[in-house]
Amino acid sequence: NLKELVNIDKYSCEIDGVCMPKKYLKMQDDVANWKVNENDVWVVSFPKTGTTWTQEMVWLLLNDLDYQKAQLNLIKRSPQLEATALLRSHLVKVFLPIIPQPIKKSLKYVKKMSSPACIKTHLPWNLLPMEIQKDIKKPKIIYISRNPKDTCISYYHFSRLIKEFDGTLEEFCEKFLAGKVNFAPFWNHVLPFWERRHDPNILFLKYEDMKRDLPSSIRKVAEFLDKNISDEHLATLADHLSFENMKNNPAVNYDWLVKMSNMAKRDGGMAPFMRQGKVGGYKEVLTKEMIEKFEIWTKEHTIETGLNY
Ligand code: A3P
C-alpha cells in the first residue's frame, strides 16, 4: 500500500501527490488497510471548509438530536482519523498530559467508537482506506466544500493560531496555490468527490449553500441519513448551528486549542477558531492581483467540471 513519497520540508512530505505531515507516514498503512464499517458516517473535507459545522449537524441527526450528549466535546463525539499525525512537537512537548485522547491516539480512539460512528477526516479520496477507494465498502460520506479563496484565508488564520505559519497572507496564498499546505492540492481534494456526487453513498455539500439556506441543507443531510425531522426540530437545530451559537458553544468552538496554543508561545491575540463564518470575506483582504491568480487557477482546474461556488 505504500504510496510514492517526496520530501517537502522538515515537517511535510508528499504522499501520492498529497502534502501531508511526515508523522502521517507512521499511520498510512493502518489507514489504508482499515476495515471500514459500512454503518459509520464519514464527514470528509479539505481543512477550513466548514467541517466542524457539518460534523455537529451530522452528529446530532445521527443521535436523535440529543443536545444533552452534544455537550461532550465534538472531538470525542466525532474524532478525526488522522489527528495524531497533525500534532507538532512544540505542542506535544509542553502539553502531552492534557492533549485529549482522541487527538493523542486518534486511530485507536476511532477504532473503539461504537457504530454508527461519525468519523471526520481531511484525507483526500486517494488516501482513504482501500476498501472505500475500491468500492468494496460504501459507508455514507458527506463531503463539505467551500470556495478556495475564503478557505485559504481561514486556513491562514488557523495556521497562525496553531503556530505553524508566521508569514504574510500573501505568502500563505502562494503556498496554498502551490499545494504546499497539509492535504493540498485543493482541487485534487474536491474534484474526486464532486465527480462522485451522484453516487448513492456520497453527499456533496457547499459551505455557501449552508450559509444561504441552512434549513434546506439540514433537510438534505437528514434525508441522506434516512432521518425524519419535524419542522420544529429543524428550526431548533438550525438555531443551534448558527454561527453565533456555535461560537459560544465550548463543545465545538475549539477554545481549548486556542488557549493551549497561546500558552505555548505566550503571544495571544490570534483570531479564534470561529472567526468570521461568512462568504466572500476574501474581498476585504486579498489584493486584486491575488484574486486574479486564484480565479485563473480555479478556471484551469474546474473548466468543464460544472463545479462553481
Ligand atoms: P472562518 O475562519 O472563515 O470564519 P473547519 O471546521 O473546516 O475548520 O472550518 C472552519 C471555518 O468554518 C471557519 O471559517 C469557521 O468560522 C466556520 N464555521 C464554523 N461554524 C460555523 C457556522 N455555524 N456558521 C458559519 N461558519 C462556521
Automatic annotation (TrEMBL):
GO terms for molecular function: transferase activity. InterPro entries: P-loop_NTPase (IPR027417), Sulfotransferase_dom (IPR000863). Pfam families: Sulfotransfer_1. Residues 39-305 form the Sulfotransferase domain. The keyword Transferase applies. Keywords: Transferase. Belongs to the sulfotransferase 1 family. This is Sulfotransferase domain-containing protein. It comes from Hypothenemus hampei.
